[in-house]
Amino acid sequence: MTVRRSVVVGVGAALPRDRVTNEDLVRRGVDTSDEWIRQRTGIGARHLAGPGETTVSLATEASRAALAAAGLAADAVDMIVLATTTPDETFPASATQVQAALGIHHGFAFDVQAVCSGFVYALATADNFLRLGQARTALVIGAETFSRLLDWNDRTTCVLFGDGAGAVVLTARDGAGTAADRGVLTTHLHSDGRHRDALYVDGGPSSTGTVGHVRMKGQEVFRHAVNRLSEVVDEALKAAHVAPEALDWLVPHQANRRIIEAMGRKLGLPPEKVVMTVERHANTSAASIPLALAEAAGDGRIRPGHLVLIEAMGGGFTWGSSLIRW
Ligand code: UT7
User: Fold this and answer.
1) Domain 183-325 falls in which CATH fold?
2) Is 195 a catalytic residue?
3) Which atom of ligand 1 lies at the shortest distance from residue 30's CA?
4) Do 67 and 169 contact (CB within 8 A), yes or no?
5) In the 3-class helix/strand/coil scheme, how is 260-289 assigned residue by residue?
6) What is the DSSP letter of 208?
7) In CATH terms, are 3-175 and 183-325 the same topology?
8) Long-range contacts of 50-55 (CB under 8 A, 24+ apart)
9) Does residue 22 have its Cβ closer than 6 Å to ligand 1?
10) Are 229 and 258 contacting, i.e. CB atoms less than 8 angstroms apart?
């Protein structure tokens, strides 16, 4: 049976110029140490947006790189979904500003907000539009300037996050309806709003009229992340009828090395099959998975035909996974 699939034809990324190590944070007055941050999180450095660098500018740069990798002109794109928690403005959607910056004057563009799970949500959304025939080529972006939500006096959160953007180009193609097809094979999304207090921002346009700062109960988030991610990874493998051994790559959300390693162990994957960028990028929220995909596809690790599993969990709580045949 012929089915329509959303096939990844290009991926790109962008990072702010300023690279800030753990030692730099100590020098800037954060009450922490390189040893603590590395031991608890695996983070060694992060990129932080400077003047003139915004979610839209990073998203636009990543999108241009993804289109170049796909060998496509911008006007081939008829849908843009941008996952972000840190839009340039409350409105319009950052996706429409990326659309304008790329010179695209047709189709439609909108943002999705699922914090660290945002890219998985955006990918699932675009996949559904493509499979229904309501768009043909989609730009799916995860872009964040999370540093602008940080309280630099709160060492339990400010050392964890970084800024950046990644984008993939998806094109609708026909497949045979099996797990051998190229394209997005499964998407599973979940949320449970009862956990709002574990990870949130203490501000917003309708409550305080301010942007607010990130607040997190780290241990509670950690515990839920390991359990929920285990479930949603099993869900993906079952739905596609594939065994963990069939996976070529696990590309997880990059929040904490310990969570990533736990997921790799659960799947029985050797560490070299788990893409890990948290050491150099820290947690870039919705941008972390497409940044990692861009790196691993760019250096030739992920190749056409490979089976890639992505998963993420974030504020809400939200969580999700997707299996993609590259
Ligand atoms: O992307 C969204 C999903 N987010 C996540 O998945 C994050 C999940 N959570 C985590 O990654 C971890 O819980 C953290 C990395 C946030 C924290 O690690 P932890 O091992 O759970 O540490 P903790 O919160 O239990 O804190 C241990 C100690 C505390 O000191 P006491 O009370 O034991 O004396 C903290 O005050 O570490 C202290 N501490 C720090 N010390 C130096 C907390 N932050 C820092 C810091 N530098 N930056």
Assistant:
1) Peroxisomal Thiolase; Chain A, domain 1 (3.40.47)
2) no
3) 48
4) yes
5) HHHHHHHCCCCHHHECCCHHHHCECHHHHH
6) T
7) yes
8) 50/16, 50/17, 50/18, 53/16, 53/17, 53/145, 53/163, 54/88, 54/145, 55/84, 55/86, 55/87, 55/88, 55/94, 55/143, 55/144, 55/145, 55/165
9) no
10) no
pLDDT truncated to tens, each residue of the chain (326 aa)?
Answer: 899 999 999 999 999 999 999 999 999 999 999 999 999 999 999 999 999 999 999 999 999 999 999 999 999 999 999 999 999 999 999 999 999 999 999 999 999 999 999 999 999 999 999 999 999 999 999 999 999 999 999 999 999 999 999 999 999 999 999 999 999 999 999 999 999 999 999 999 999 999 999 999 999 999 999 999 999 999 999 999 999 999 999 999 999 999 999 999 999 999 999 999 999 999 999 999 999 999 999 999 999 999 999 999 999 999 999 999 99
Of ligand 1's listed atoms, the one at least distance from the Cα of 218 is 13
Based on the residue annotation, tell me whether 128 is a catalytic residue of this protein: no
253 catalytic? Reply is: yes
Task: Check: CB of residue 17 under 8 Å from CB of residue 50.
Answer: yes
Domain ranges of the chain: 3-175, 183-325
CA of 32 to the centre of ligand 1 (A): 11
Catalytic residue, chosen from 116, 224, 256, 281, is: 116
CATH no., domain 3-175: 3.40.47.10
Handedness of CA 266, 267, 268, 270 (dihedral sign): negative
Count CB atoms within 10 A of the CB of residue 30.
Answer: 17
Tell me the two tokens of residue 297: 């596809």
Which token pair is 128? Answer: 């559904």
Return the H-helix or E-strand segment holding 10.
strand 3-14
Contact 323, 236 (CB under 8 A): yes
155 lines ligand 1 (CB under 6 A): yes
